[in-house]
Specification:
42% of the residues lie in helices and 15% in strands. The protein is of the alpha/beta class and 425 residues long. The chain folds into three domains: 259 residues, 3-Layer(aba) Sandwich (Rossmann fold); 41 residues; 85 residues, formyl-coa transferase, domain 3, CATH 3.30.1540.10. A six-stranded parallel beta sheet has the order 5-2-1-6-7-8, with helices on both faces. The protein is elongated, with a radius of gyration of 26 Å. It starts with 9 loop residues before the first strand and ends in a 5-residue tail after the last helix.
Length: 425
């Protein structure tokens, strides 16, 4: 029995790949009943690097706690079944290409006419308007359009941009989908009104680029000099035919001050540590631990002054050499004792048994009815009255087709007729 705050809410998911499935998995963790609609052959992520028929790791980790309805929406009988189902649903979530919904008869206008108080979440790649509205788009393409790919500043040995995993635009859109559903359900509870909620990979890729020199936002009073430097740099790059890798390096130098010993990673004698100090008090603690002096927080500090930059480079070389002389364990213990936020750089595949994760119940063990035991990240909330919890592993393809159609009023004979006609799996 679901225990989360959305217990009793029914959601029909037309989701594939990452954003829609992740958003609906979060909603399932919160207690909603999520019926995932798939074509009879399964959605693409189910078929991606299958380790057994119709099962992939990437599908299983994004679709736990759902029910699977395998149905062919290209056939009129399939669309009719979905329309009957919508009468019993509170929410529809779709992240298909924009033109697909209308073609399959699952667009907002059609479904809200059937269920007027329906909450309908429409997640696209680039938004519903503009020249790019009907384009298909994946995380890599949206990272390119949004500048996110350039923000990471990484290139391969050929000088080509590297897409940094995880799929940042997709995963943040998943959270936006879940938040949009909850907000719209609250509005419906207050007013009785349903509505369409729109989000996109593009807006979420822009939203997460905030908080530093890589920010999307423009505040002329604060960043006019920086933007002028970048504009001049791009003019020079075009004139000189500068390579992409060289342009990235030049941009980084133009917007990131040299003297950073406070918020970065360092090589140790046997690994890597990360240090994070974003306040003057924490930076003072970094200097105290390292036994160095630096005028970073004194009046008049100018990171763009050539003399200051030379002093900062010498400081960085000194600190890097000092940290490289001792072990990761030593520096973690030393920085922690000095009150500095610090951690070794871990590999995610090695964290299942990490004491901090276990202490907070951040790892859940589930049992998939086909592939057996699995360990996943727990729901990202703890709630004292309505605690979220996974409602089981991901569903095998079409496992719940009969039960879901029966809930819409189909008899066993009608369901079998649909199966013989190839409408359902």
């Amino acid at each position: 029995m679901a225990s989360g705050p959305l217990n009793g809410i029914r959601i029909l998911e037309f989701g594939q790949i990452i954003a829609g499935p992740l958003g609906c998995q979060l909603l399932a963790d919160l207690g909603a009943e999520v019926v995932k609609v798939e074509p009879p052959e399964g959605e693409p992520w189910r078929l991606n690097v299958q380790f057994m028929p119709h099962e992939s790791k990437v599908f299983q980790e994004l679709n736990r706690g759902k029910r699977s309805l395998a149905i062919d929406l290209s056939q009129p009988e399939g669309r009719e079944a979905v329309h009957r189902l919508v009468r019993t649903m509170d929410v529809v979530v779709i992240n298909y290409r924009p033109d697909v919904a209308e073609r399959l008869g699952i667009d907002y206008e059609t479904l809200s006419a059937i269920r007027p108080d329906l909450v309908y979440v429409d997640s696209t790649a680039f938004g519903r308007k503009g020249a790019m509205a009907d384009r298909p788009g994946y995380d890599i393409v949206v990272q390119a359009v949004s500048g996110l790919m350039a923000t990471t500043g990484k290139v391969d040995e050929r000088g080509l941009p590297i897409v940094t995993p995880p799929a940042l635009a997709d995963t943040t859109t998943g959270y936006a989908i879940a938040a949009g559903v909850c907000a719209a359900l609250f509005h419906r509870a207050m007013t009785g009104q349903g509505q369409r909620v729109e989000t996109s990979l593009l807006i979420n890729a822009l939203t997460i680029q905030a908080g530093g020199s890589w920010s999307f936002s423009s505040v002329p009073a604060a960043d006019a000099r920086e933007r002028a430097r970048l504009a001049a740099l791009h003019e020079r790059a075009r004139a000189e035919g500068m390579s992409y890798a060289d342009l990235l390096a030049a941009r980084s130098a133009a917007i990131r001050p040299v003297g950073n010993i406070y918020y970065r990673c360092f090589l140790t004698s046997d690994g890597v540590i990360a240090v994070g100090a974003l306040s003057a008090s924490l930076r003072a603690k970094v200097r105290a631990v390292l036994g160095v002096e630096h005028n970073r927080d004194e009046p008049g500090y100018d990171p763009w002054d050539p003399g200051q930059q030379e002093a900062d480079r010498k400081l960085i070389a000194l600190v890097e050499e000092k940290i490289r002389a001792r072990s990761t364990e030593y520096w973690e213990r030393t920085f922690e004792a000095g009150g500095v936020p610090v951690s070794p750089v871990n590999f995610v595949q090695e964290l299942i048994d990490h004491p901090q994760l276990l202490a907070n119940d951040y790892v859940v063990k589930l049992n998939h009815e086909l592939s057996g035991p699995q360990w996943l990240a727990a729901p990202p909330w703890k709630m004292s009255v309505t605690p979220p919890q996974p409602q089981g592993a991901s569903p095998p393809l079409g496992r719940d087709t009969d039960a879901v159609l029966a809930s819409a009023g189909y008899s066993a004979g009608q369901i079998e007729a649909l199966r013989r006609a190839g409408v359902v799996r």
